TrEMBL record:
The keyword ATP-binding applies. Residues 28-263 form the ABC transporter domain. It holds the Pfam family ABC_tran. The lineage of its organism: unclassified sequences, metagenomes, ecological metagenomes. This is ABC transporter domain-containing protein. GO terms for molecular function: ATP binding; ATP hydrolysis activity. Signal peptide: none annotated. InterPro entries: AAA+_ATPase (IPR003593), ABC_carbohydrate_import_ATPase (IPR050107), ABC_transporter-like_ATP-bd (IPR003439), P-loop_NTPase (IPR027417). PROSITE patterns: ABC_TRANSPORTER_2 (PS50893). It comes from marine metagenome. Belongs to the ABC transporter superfamily. AI-2 autoinducer porter (TC 3.A.1.2.8) family. Keywords: ATP-binding, Nucleotide-binding.
Amino acid sequence: MSESENIIDNTSENEVLSNTKQSVVGDIYVQDVHKSFGVTKALDGVNFSANFGEIHAIVGPNGCGKSTLAKVLSGVLPIDKGKVSVMGHFPTSPVMARNLGIATVFQEVMIADEVSVVDNLFIGSDDFWYKSLTHREKVKKAEELMKDLLGEYVDPNTLAINLSLPIKAWITIGRAFLRENTKVLILDESSAALDFDSTERLFKKMREFRDSGMAVFIVTHRIAELIRISDKATVMRDGVDVGVLDKKDLNEKNLLSLMTGKVESGE
């Protein structure tokens, strides 16, 4: 039977959801990771794994720990206990994460309004490659990148204060796409400030990254979006990973059952 044919899966929902816990084996993984903020346990023994060449969603309700996990993978937050491995290394700082090829885009639109598009794109860059570029080369690079991401021309010398919020969001996202050594891309609620067309363009770039062999993570609570774009999804609840769903099992019913801990009875 070809993959294009409709296949009736007789596996019950209970069977699908009872076999969703993942083994900690992969190019990128965390094992028994704990992270607390005071008395609040943000991560409570999380196990998670992913591989290159896939788009992997980390999903759950607000406060479930998904953004904390993204920050751990990015070297932004230290852990209290456990093991983190990205290509065999433990990123203990953002600088180390960048050097390993981990690029992260957080939900906040982090833009300096008083400087230009090109300066915002290269802001905070300490790589030798960045430092070796002349200003003219940076302007050309910024112009090409923004045209590729937005599909339209944006003057690299325009001050950010004069730009719309979606374009500012693209500049924030663009920093990750600008890096030439990126092997792992983490997008934490990065579509929040984007309209539909911009989100579609972002999804297109994510697929290009995946198809080139990179690992792409999307941290989100938007179920419809993750079903469309993801190859796998790890579901979190109350600081714990409660299951992983493959593409064939990615649907709203399964996701909500794992997110809420309530499995609906069959009809």
